[in-house]
Known about the structure:
The complex is a heterodimer of chains A (284) and B (267).
Chain A: H1 2-31, H2 48-55, H3 57-69, H4 72-87, H5 94-102, H6 109-120, H7 125-132, H8 148-174, H9 178-186, H10 191-219, H11 223-228, H12 240-250, H13 254-278
Helix pairs in contact in A: 2-13, 3-12, 4-8, 4-10, 8-10, 10-13, 12-13
Chain B: H1 2-29, H2 50-58, H3 61-92, H4 98-107, H5 116-126, H6 133-141, H7 144-155, H8 159-167, H9 172-183, H10 185-201, H11 204-209, H12 218-228, H13 233-253, H14 255-266
Helix pairs in contact in B: 1-13, 2-13, 3-6, 3-7, 3-10, 8-9, 10-14, 12-13
Amino acid sequence: xxxxxxxxxxxxxxxxxxxxxxxxxxxxxxxxxxxxxxxxxxxxxxxxxxxxxxxxxxxxxxxxxxxxxxxxxxxxxxxxxxxxxxxxxxxxxxxxxxxxxxxxxxxxxxxxxxxxxxxxxxxxxxxxxxxxxxxxxxxxxxxxxxxxxxxxxxxxxxxxxxxxxxxxxxxxxxxxxxxxxxxxxxxxxxxxxxxxxxxxxxxxxxxxxxxxxxxxxxxxxxxxxxxxxxxxxxxxxxxxxxxxxxxxxxxxxxxxxxxxxxxxxxxxxxxxxxxxxxxxxxxx
Amino acid sequence: xxxxxxxxxxxxxxxxxxxxxxxxxxxxxxxxxxxxxxxxxxxxxxxxxxxxxxxxxxxxxxxxxxxxxxxxxxxxxxxxxxxxxxxxxxxxxxxxxxxxxxxxxxxxxxxxxxxxxxxxxxxxxxxxxxxxxxxxxxxxxxxxxxxxxxxxxxxxxxxxxxxxxxxxxxxxxxxxxxxxxxxxxxxxxxxxxxxxxxxxxxxxxxxxxxxxxxxxxxxxxxxxxxxxxxxxxxxxxxxxxxxxxxxxxxxxxxxxxxxxxxxxxxx
Lengths: 284, 267
């Protein structure tokens, strides 16, 4: 009887998960090997879609860019951990700073796109500041230059992500027992030693989780591309998933889109497995 | 001295985080001069609310707003109900397959959910939910993070309370709804607020499901503004300010819930 109750409680959530989380992965993986469309009969086409996308310059650039996005992970993680350390105190007004760092996280991506569009504009605030500081001579076309645009997008994802990870680290920092720190102070450990010998080992599980999440987020980035450059200039800012989004939604080539997302997923799962293996907390 | 340096560093970083918002606000409030004038203005010139009024004239702002509120409210309600119902047996009941179910729920965290919408659109079409709010809401009702947070919350409730209720002959449903849910109210609030902000900010999925402009939520509608009035940057800026105002207010007044949500996630 008790068993039946448990399943009744779980059923609605499981049904929705099955339909909207597991079915898309299973069915989507199958469709990647077909010529599915809503209007025609479906045929099995083997690896045709995969051959097509790997011959396609936009997807290959996209995949490279997705991997390039991984460069951001250490910046995001080290940045977020440093921020967390900076705000982990009781200084007057510190909660306003925490709030300020978190505000980009609660902003919808469409608005982020519009705001950073203003910022990156050739006559925008960023170029003004850089020119005022004599860091650049002429205005830089952040989003119109095909080498810079990708880095501009990466910066925006960093800007959006930092606060989220900061709060994760902050929570973990506050869970570090104060008496451990006090004991270390009595033993004459300085601030730096305490950070590396106590705080970092205690934070290991959080660092692991955040790094894996950050790696996955980097590989799967595409929304910022959509709202900032839509893949341009000259297709230089395509990412693996942006190609999937572009093909699936704008060109209605669903099987190609699914083949592309299949490849990106393989990368995600592979890298997640590697990370989990090597970053496993040792002391447990 | 050290404190001053600390504050200066904090201010510098805060400036980078907040400046785009400030500049957008300045752009929206100003009515005079070129937006991309050189040097740019960092303070509103001749501030007025004209651009904001223009937003309401240009697009059906009230409908967008109402749609967003409706979508967010429904998502929060159903998520709290279904995710807590799912979390309860995972936390407090012993049954066969519990580990497996839990593993499956965890697996959704690694799955590439970002592109689920490609197949979900087919599903929603087959279920004839295109152009309905049910189509927008249903895929977002259940997610692993919420179940994990609520499971955590249920695990912290003392076993004695449940045992006492069972001795009194209360059914599992009564225990769940009358005893457990009130006890985890702060966690429900946390999940609720996080969900409300997420639902409000959701942008790609609603733009796929909804095709009629006056049924759009704000996050989608605001880009529609860019399409129709491409030249009037100030009106677009005013539209973005109106779009983010509710989430920013919600966040600033309920900051501790956000921090708590993360607290639970770390455990």
